[in-house]
Predict the 3D structure of the following.
Amino acid sequence: MPQAIAGFSKLSKDAKIEWVSKTFTQDKPEIKALLKQYWLEDQSLQQLHDEFIENTLSNFFLPLGVAPNFLINEQLYAIPMAIEESSVVAAAAKAAKFWLDRGGFKTEVLGTEKIGQVHFFYDGDTEKLQHFFEKLEPILRKDCAALTDNMEKRGGGISKIELRDKNSDLQHYYQIHAVFETANAMGANFINSCLEQFAKSLQREAAQSSLLAGSSIEVVMSILSNYVPQCVVKATVSCPVAELEGIEGASGEEFAKKMIQAVQIAKAEPHRAVTHNKGIMNGIDAVVIATGNDFRAVEAGVHAYAAKDGMYSSLTHASLQDGIFSFWIEVPLALGTVGGLTNLHPLVKWSLEVLQRPSAKQLMEIVAVAGLAQNFAALHALVTSGIQKGHMKMHLMNILNQLGATPSEKEQLIQEFKQQTATHSNVVQAFEKLRAASTK
Ligand code: MEV
């Protein structure tokens, strides 16, 4: 069994690589070389990446692409997407083009409230705590002034601070539950700093309060919540059903009906809902990553939202009314376009530039559109030709790369598979046949 190591983070990068290599990969030079192959030539750029996290050994690249032709609120966008899944950008571009000719995407930000909580236990009388809190609330605001002044200048701040009695969930459990507006910042640091100040003020004031004498307050933690059901954006596409005519030979009504049924199934059945929403997250995460936002926070919040009515369900909706087919998404997205990685990562800066330097609200709209487009493309394929046709086309290149096909072999095999479905085994067969013929 390998030996644990003390002080690893203090070793130089080379020494760290040596240790990992000797301890876990039998010091194989070809494995060690892989890491260095992905170092950036530009030293200062590499240093920037090294300093994003602790113990950086190399860089882990994801493809960064754009899906063009997104018409959103009458404005044309090319949406940057960072993702490894082969069909995602192609699907986004296809859906964008489809809706470009049918009026494009319309969006609306329904709210931008973010939440943070100080979780504490209190063993005294609830009414006394409520009286104490009435006096505490303005003190909490005053003690945070140094933090909030700047945020208020940018249009944000603390909108509400309330005491929540959570005894029915857990004995003696209470919260300071606060609502924040964070303007164009995602706001995690601002919210967490305010909350930690709340906790200090709460403990200081409680220790001096005659109302709370004889009882104790124990703060457990202070942290923002990634569940943001009031930080929500809606994106919609709609068109007369006649404009859906002819998709894979179906009438407009038939296609619309199938799309609505697909959404109904995802609403009714969690197994399908999870996959349905996973497809939506293909689009959302790719833009969230490209724009330097926290995709784990977005994922956690989105899935909680999908279960907000007591059962995990679809994030998208569809209807056919008075001859108009509508397809829309409502999704919580706490995003920022200033601060964090947005000021640091050169490719994040590039992505935001391509998106015309959006505000946080505009970014919410763009990301929701990417999610909706992805779901439209997935359902479109699923209810017509099936998903494998498009998937395998994109997958073909991955298989050819795995097989080590040369550029000319790739070209020939791509031509060949225009005529037939590409499955893993028949691509391997065709590749082997081609290789054998050329080495004869
Ligand atoms: C694959 O990454 C995503 C899909 O499975 C989504 C869906 O089934 O709706 C195609």
